[in-house]
Structures are given as structure tokens and as C-alpha cells.
Amino acid sequence: MAKITYAVVEHDGGFAYRVGDVYSETFATHQAAHEAAESAAARQQLGGEDTQIQYQDADGNWREERAKGDQPPEAEVEDDLPADLEARDSKGRILSEDELPDPDRAPAGDIVSRGDK
């Protein structure tokens, strides 16, 4: 059986989960990224009908294959970050999801992703 690991990491001034070399969207808080990784891992393990899937491999090539619904992969979340690590501004204030800049539209500016000031 295949095994997939969702690793919670610091990413783009906030937090994300990573599977191989592919990152999720960026979350403002460590907790939000961890919860999203747990949810994705749980959904990955659901059985169902056979289906065609597409994915991008580590070399950037798109692949297509048939996934058997009765053989879902084993999925786990790996999170080695300190529990109190949160996205903060330059004054040390914890940022909310709404305050995290969109990494596609603006630079992160004064966001510091480490828990220490």
C-alpha cells in the first residue's frame, strides 16, 4: 500500500503543508495549516469508486492514471514545528488569516514567521 506524508512547514511568510515537493495554499497560522493537513490526510484515505486522477510529478510533468477506489493510500501528518509558532508582524502581533498578504499579489513585507520577536 502506498503511503503519503503531509508535512506541516513554514512557507511564504506563513504555514502550509507539503506532499513531496508540492505545497498547499499558505495559512496565516500554524494551527490552520495543521488542521488542513489533517483534513487532507483523512480525505486521502477514503475509499470509493475507481477514478482517473491527474497529478504533477517532482519534475513538473503532468501524469494521469487510474486510481483504484478500494486501495486508498495510507496517509499521515508530520508536524515538527513548535505548537506555539504563528505568523507575526514585525511588532510580534499574531496575524489572522485575513491579515496574511496574498503571496501572488504582494511581497510579505514585515511578516515574520517565527514565534520569537
From TrEMBL:
InterPro entries: DUF2188 (IPR018691). Pfam families: DUF2188. Residues 73-83 have a biased composition (Acidic residues). It comes from the Bacteria. Residues 60-71, 85-117 have a biased composition (Basic and acidic residues). Residues 35-117 are annotated as: Disordered. This is DUF2188 domain-containing protein. It comes from Devosia subaequoris. The lineage of its organism: Bacteria, Pseudomonadati, Pseudomonadota, Alphaproteobacteria, Hyphomicrobiales.
